[in-house]
Structures are given as structure tokens and as C-alpha cells.
Amino acid sequence: MVLYPVMRKLLDKRVVLAGASPRRQEILSHAGLRFTVVPSRFQENLRKAPSPTPFPYAMDTAKQKALEVARSMHQKHGKAVEDRDGKPTVQSLPPTAIVELIDGFKGSKALFTACKMKVFDLLGDEGPLSGADVARKIGASEGGTGQLLDVCAGLGLLDKTEGGYSNTPLATLYLLSDGEYSLHSYVMVHEELVWPFYSYLDFAVREGIVQAQRALGTAGEDHYQFFFPNREKKLQFMRAMHGHTKVAARHVATAFDLSGFTSACDLGGSTGALAYELARQYPGLKVTIFDLPEVIEDAVFFKPHGPEAGQVSFVPGDFFQDTLPEADLYIVSKILHNWPDDKVHQLLSRISRSCKPGGGLLVAEQLLDEDKCRPLPALMMSLNMTVLFQARERSLSEYRSLLQAHGFTDVRAVRTGSTSDAVLATRA
Asked: Which runs of E-coded beta strand occur in 157-246?
């Protein structure tokens, strides 16, 4: 992200948006920023004549908006202006944020539906297209398709012009089903698998158990079995995890200098999305992916064509039961958040016994802040883990405590601003 250096400077600041633009909120949320929306009432009526270029005019307008918002806010406790009884008013604290939360699921479902109907693939191949043409090509009603396309445009996924609808760069990069950084399968896993579980969030909260029986009609003890009911769904899930890992792989691989390691073992490394990126960044590093046999048998579909493919090998096994391959660096990416503390301790104990003094452990997860109230993407992922596995995301202090309990020291973290942060520890 071009703006990421700027975003990092805002991590510990109070951020106020003068408008409720969904796109701006999306950018700030993905950057891990907390923000408040205080809509500006400034009328953009500055004269453009004194500005030789659009830039000064835009800056002056933004400055006036900021000043107008600042005047409307009560600074003492960071609260909105209150009435005589000390209570916020609907004039000073509009319901915009609440309404956006209420509408949040509608935006998600619109995205899911557009992906399911391959709208972004169609527009990637043939766009721009009129709403009528899109409806005809996907076999849907013209009115309903038009509504869906307009919502996607409002969400920043489509551009709408006189020539028709076309994908925005965001959709082109992440929502084409065959894109290098495609999250299309990740979207579909949420549509088909995760969505039903959230219908029973209240039961998950009350009972503290995975709601597989209510959501899917199955109550098997193996809580992973609903991911792999057949080979087609297994491949879809692997594509989903591949995309979600790949978009952050370079951030994680370069968060620390790992050039001192000559061998690595990626436990549960699945398709090798992170392993291949590590190989690209460190040509002297040999990476072994240790995963279940049924996963490894289909990992060949994700093998890249570059020289890094020769640095990565696969070994079948269960990291809770089988002997772990020897390595200087062990990696757990999107693994620890799948399990409650007792299982995490069990896995870390096995890694600790295999890791030699001076060896490393790289953890790739989304880090919660110490107050557990931010950043929002990590909070949402933590809720996801609770709903699906009765597990959660953790803060750096929690990871430090877990790792130190198993002989790992010098625990350091880097917030990458992507879908995974990085924690590196050294075996004492």
C-alpha cells in the first residue's frame, strides 16, 4: 500500500474522519487504525480562482473540513458535544456509525453474491458492460443485477460510467478467480461455510461450543471435517488459504532478517504460499512443508514455475502426533489461532523439543493490541476463530508468555499492515 508509511505514523493517534466514505473506512480498517466518523457540515464553497492547480484547492477544503469538525467536537474526554444535561445529541453524534454496522452484513452478502455469479471475472474479460448485458450474461434479472452492480460500485469494487460497469483496481487485484493474489475462493468459503455459523453466533457465545450441528447438521468431533467433505471443497479451501496467505507472504517473509537460517519447516504450510516467498527472498534457505497427506497430495496445483520451487519440499504428517522434520527455523502461519491454549501449549512443546538452541520460531498471525479492542481486522478474525473453532487471536504479550513457557526468548513482533503480522522468537 502506497500510504502505508503514513498509516504507521497514525497507529497511536486519534483518527477522525470528516466523512463516512466506505472506501476510506476500508483503507483505514485494513491498516489497523481505529477511527471515529464525525461528518463535516462544511459547504465546499471556497473559490477555485486563486488556486493555480487543483491541489491547493483540495488542501484548503480539507483544512476547512478539519477545522469545522474540530470545532464540533468536545475535546475534554474525546466525546461529542453534549446538551445541557451532559448527554450527546443526535445533532452532535449522528447515528451513522450504528447504521453502517447494521448494514455491514448487506455489503458482505453483496460481495459474496457478485463473486458467486462471477461478475468480476465477466467484467475482467469483457468490461465495461451495461447492466443489461451483465444480467443477460450471468442469467439474472436486469433489475436485480442493476441493484447489485450499483452496490458493488458504492463499495468501491466497480466503476460506473456512461460506457457501463468495469472492475476497479481493487477488484482486479483480489476478486478475479484466477488472479495471482485472488481472494475469490476466500470469499466463497465465507459465503458457503462461515456465513451459516454466524447465524448461530448467539448460541456460540452462550454455550461456548462450535455450532456445527446447527449450522451444517453435523456434530463430528473433528472440527476440521466440515472443511473437507469432498475433494472439490478441499481444493476450494486450499485456494482460499493460499490467497489469504499469499497477499501477506512478502510482508511476513521480510519482517525480519532471516538470512542466518539455512533450513526451515513450515508446519501446516499447505500450498506453500509462504514457503515459496521465503525461498524467493532467501535463496540459500531450504523449506520443508509438513502437512497432512490429503493436503500435500493436491499442493502440486499451487507450485510456481520459478527457481524457488526447487528450494521447497513436502513431507506428510500430523504435527500433533508425528516427528517434526529437523530445521533451524520453524514456522506456524495461521495455525496457533485455530486452537485453544491447551492445544497451543501441546504444539509449542513439540516444536521446542525439535528446535535446537539458537534456532528460531516464526509465527504469522494477526496481533491484537493489549487492550483487545483493536485493530478491527484482528478482532474480526478472532471472532471468526471463536465461531468456527472456539479459538482466538492473541496479543503480543500473550504470545510472549506462551513462547517463553517453552524456552523461546527474544520475542519480537512486526505489524505488517497486511492480513498477517509476524512474531519471531529464539530457542534458548
From this structure: 158-161, 164-167
- Using left for φ > 0, alpha for ψ between -120 and 50, and beta otherwise, residue 421 falls in beta
The residues near 19 (Cβ < 8 Å, ≥ 6 apart) are: 37, 39, 40, 65
pLDDT tens string 118-149: 999 999 999 899 999 999 999 999 999 999 99
Q: For residue 417, what are the contacts with CB-CB under 8 A and spacing of at least 6?
A: 1, 4, 7, 8, 30, 31, 32, 251
Which is nearest to 309 in space by CA: 294, 289, 328, 329? 289
Which residue's C-alpha cell is 498509516? 7
Domains detected in the chain: 4-79 (3.90.950.10), 98-174 (1.10.10.10), 231-427 (3.40.50.150)
Residue type, 394: R
**Alpha carbon distance 36, 32 (integer Å):** 13
Q: pLDDT tens, 220-276?
A: 555 566 777 788 999 999 999 999 999 999 999 999 999 999 999 999 999 999 999
Query: Taking the C-alpha atoms of 30, 31, 33 and 38 in order, what is their torsion angle to the nearest 10 degrees?
Result: -70
Catalytic residue among 305, 337, 345, 406: 337
Residues 6+ apart with CB under 8 A from 298: 231, 234, 235, 238
337 annotated active-site: yes
Q: Which residues on neighbouring strands pair with residue 291, listed in sequence order?
A: 316
